[in-house]
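quick one, 397 residues, struct below
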Amino acid sequence: MEASKLDKPVFPFVKIVGQDDMKLGLILNIIDPTLGGVLIMGERGTGKSMAVRSIADILPTIDVVKGDNYNSNPDNPAEMGPDAKAKALGGETLDRMAIKIPVVELPLGATEDRICGTIDIERALSEGVKAYEPGLLAKANRGILYVDEVNLLEDGLVDVVLDSAASGWNTVEREGVSISHPARFIMVGSGSEEEGELRPQLLDRFGLNVQVRTIMNLDDRTELATNRMMYDMNPREFVNQSAAESKELTDKLAACRELLPKVTLDPDIPLKISEVCSSLNVDGLRGDIVVNRCAKAHAAWCGRTTATAEDVARVIVMCLSHRLRKDPMDTMDGGYKVVLTYQKVFGSGAPQVSKTPEAELIELQKQKEEEAAKKAAEAPPPAKKAGSWDPSSLGRR
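---
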């Protein structure tokens, strides 16, 4: 189901307070779709699904072939579906239209035929021809494929999605029908760790991993709860009030996508990134590639044409924390390991890495303990009851 076609307006992305890493991970993937998507894991009720669905209204537009089922790129035959490609190679002029980047949700109960596509039964019965009916992967081409509760997805469906995500193509063989079409999409998944872990093969496919925790800041928590209650009272009015902010963010994202090809890296940055990945024993080269690309996307988001150590510091934890080998005897969080290794390689003068959710919780707990100790120290001693005996008076006699 496409979020943009929902009858009820979606909650505005610009009104989500806090959860900066989650919002940044989604934004960076919109700027650079080659990052590999984002996995959002965390506690229940922290706005994971709401954030993903809300990006539908801030996405920039793309040009597609009019009437095409695969969101074909009218300027590149390599990114066209079979029908549009045949017309283009035949010399026909393709009509085009602009649409918002599609957001397609993959439900847990979906079948393989619904995902990959199957035989068009209606045409087979009415016209007697073997025709292909596109599935969710066709609709998600050049867009976003969202899987809620991704850790509960059946293994067979995981393999289907992984094959398409790796190759960028979906090949279907059904009842004498053989067809291949482009299936390049940004894969976004969300889930709760309490409901089970993700398969390592699927976990590594996500470019970024974001851990979401309940907002502890009192002001942010109150503002987000108030925004949500106002939205529930009158969704359309609330969305209309946020339209100007949403339009401003949409325009900025479009500008960042145009700026991205011009962004370069400082010469020593890729070497240091690879040193960090090597020191952390990250398997394969996906981690190195994603950190480099993500740093450039962050520089574009900040309006710069050169990515620096500051950009690396902001994104390296979400790029690498889920790629570390898990040792059941090791109690240190993966994000902490990335932070320590980054500081060792980039030096003490390097920009500080953003705090992990675990570090924020520890800091908040320390603040509460310090405040409690301060109040206890400033509190006056309890007043003595009338007629009570004071043991210290024995020393004065």
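The two ends are 87 Å apart (CA to CA).
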